[in-house]
Specification:
single chain; 12 helices; elongated; 62% helix
Length: 318
Amino acid sequence: MTISSEVANETVLHTLVAVYSAQIERLKRESSGMTYVAHFLSPDPEVVGAKGEKMSDAQVEEYYRVYLLGVLERCHLTSITSLARTNSWLTSSLTELESGNLLGFSASLRGLLEAAADTHDAAAVMVEHLYNLFPFIYLRLQGDDTAPGVILKHLEDRLIHYSYARRQANRSEALPEHTNKQNFVYIDAIEKSGAVGAKDLYRVLCELTHPAAPSVSCFLTETEREIALDFSQEKRIINEIISEYEETIKSLVSNTVNSALVSLMVLRKLGHDVPAPNPSSFAGVGGVAKIFSRIDEFLLKASSEGFVFSKDMWHQKL
């Protein structure tokens, strides 16, 4: 979705809330109560062949279909929870801004930055895989084996990391995907992908949020001769942060939220029945419009009588 100055209110946070929050809340309501089961399933000997027996082609296809459904479930879980988390931090940041609470604002905005960077680690890979491998996934889910099967290990690893990564105890034998990275790794990656200034903004917010000098000096004015208490500076400092890092904040939120929204739309095109935005939401976004134009063109071909897939039907990549 595009961020238009027409919806801008007072700050970039007002604009982002106006553009995204209502739609995210709708998607949350429509998704609430959904369950995920496919990615927990293990091969059932009665379905995929008893141990030691060669599976029939039909059994292999069913096993592979369940595998793909499990990956799509993880994609949906990542998309909708990242949207919910981002919106919570976004609205909290706006609330603290409007109340003039500098420390509350800095804590919420730091949470927003960290959440966006964490989402980016999975979402960028997710959109790329869902689009680049769209026909292979779609056809196999439809029971059409004219397209070769694909294994989505890199995508799976990122999605598992998103859901399960945490700080592990020393000498833990946890899987690599279950072990968190340092925050600066996520933030460095999202800055390199376009959120210029993310690392510097993070430094500023950490100095305010942690017990560092700026979390004290924000209540003081100091000259060469004296130090005076001054509790009127919080709004000024908030406005300085918003003004200096406006483009950074806009990029952090819009890039990650748009990735999650686009992923939901692609999941629906794949036949996965999940709530998703209306494609018209991205009518003015050229890159997204091209993605769905190519997908729709392929789906039209795939629905024609006598269709047989060939690799030259899908050579466009993100």
